[in-house]
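Methods, example record. To illustrate the input and output format used throughout this study, we show the complete record for Lysylphosphatidylglycerol synthase domain-containing protein. The sequence lines were provided to the predictor; the line carrying structure tokens was produced by it.
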Amino acid sequence: MAHTESPPTWTQRLLRYGTGVLILALLAGALVILNRWLEQYSVADIRQALNRITGVQLLAASAAAAVSYWLLTLYDLLALRHLRRPLPYRWVAFTAFTSYAFSHSLGFASIIGATVRYRLYAPHGLGGVEVAQVTLFVVTTFMLGLATVMPVVMLIDPTALKALHVPPGSAFLLGLAALVILVAYAVGGFWLRRPLRVFGHAIAFPRPSIAVRQLLLGLCDLSLAALVLYLCLPPSDAVSYADVLVAFGLALVAGIISHVPGGLGVFDAIVLVSLTPAMPGNDVMAGLLVFRLIYYLAPLVIAGLMFGGVEAFQARRRIGGLSRGISAAISPAVPLVLAACIFITGAFLLFSRATPEETLPAPFDATALPLVEMSHFTGSVAGVLLILLAHAVQRRLHAAWVLSLVLLATGCASALLKGGDWPEAIVPGLIFLALLPARKEFHRRGNILRNPLTPSWFIATGVALASAFWLGLFSYKHIAFSDELWWHFTLHGDASRFLRASVAVGVIALGAALVHLVSAASRDPQEREREEKPPGPLTAARRTD
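The corresponding predicted structure is encoded as:
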């Protein structure tokens, strides 16, 4: 008799979704902190700060981000060497870059990173346990780097912890004690030569040579990531690189603890509180915005285009045996990549509609008011629908693929009709080109409404919608909202357009929540397990042949 899983109890459901509610509550607290510390600033102030960031800074920050992501590929390479399972570096680099691009933007690094790694490493002979060990090694290396940065900073510059009100003498002693612990970890491999047993699995303690490389690799990577943030800040002599490095480390720890996707809000609040005593809040927020574009959004778009390029190459009839093998291995991870890109694009459209426009081109006069109103409203609706569709894209539903293409085209057109905003139209346009050739990956026929959100997608959706709404309130907080403003249609009435679009977004989100709750309550547990179970690598390989 086949074993069937019993439906989840109320306690399990409460724990599953209660965690999501707690994460959203932490995000709300972070947004309250941001709003309080930015109370005296406006969007115009942040834009002025953005204008002070030079092109040389942007190029230097982009180069530092590229080197940082290259170092991240060495995480996986070192993990495979520790397991004595070497793989070609080009494949390791592709896998590592993709997994980090997703986990940085969506959070849940241990889940998303492990999923992508399994999809791409399994065809090369790595089993589930080995992929889990790689993920554990990578997470450990990251945490070691985080633990190494602070002691080094405290030893070099004990005054860098002034934001935490830690005396220089105490900071030096804390750094020295932490450094002793890290040295003990590095040489621990001389004595712990037998594998440790964890849940019945043998996990080998790193050899001293591997442990030292872990410490150096993590230190260099986090130092470079903090350098990206430092280079993104407007020029100032009041904040040093050591100050940014300490703030960056503390913000990363807070973001990891909160489990908010991408540390959105939480990371920004910690950096803002740490740096504003020496730097204006609008300068800090401007630097954070540029940092997220360079270190989060750009790699995610590049990863999506890479997968889209593979799918386009696969669609050509003149494909050799090697390229078929590569495509068969990559194909199972394509829906996850594209789902992440679609989700970020939807959030991007919502964020862009939540901020006022500086000016409109000359041809857009009062006669173009209906066009501007329609483009703003349709762009917001397309954004929230893309966010809600992302989980269905991950499940390979054909209807979700078709609707996503339509919504991406709508978002691109709305940006152009809003006033010829071609920079905004680039993001949905590129994701459209990446999604278009992936037709064969979305083979499942089914009702989108019968696929309720999982807890992780529920959290990510709530974070995106709450952040977009807060951004709109912050952008127009100096405007006195009234009934006249709500129905006031003018060419530059961005506040009223935001209010009308927010109502539409809220109604759509509420309707989707009700539909998914009813669908989840009426579905059979076996049907849910069968639909949510991802296809294995061998199944995907047979389908692509």
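Annotations derived from this record:
Confidence is low (pLDDT under 50) at residues 1-5, 317-326, 530-545.
The chain is about 70% helix and 0% strand.
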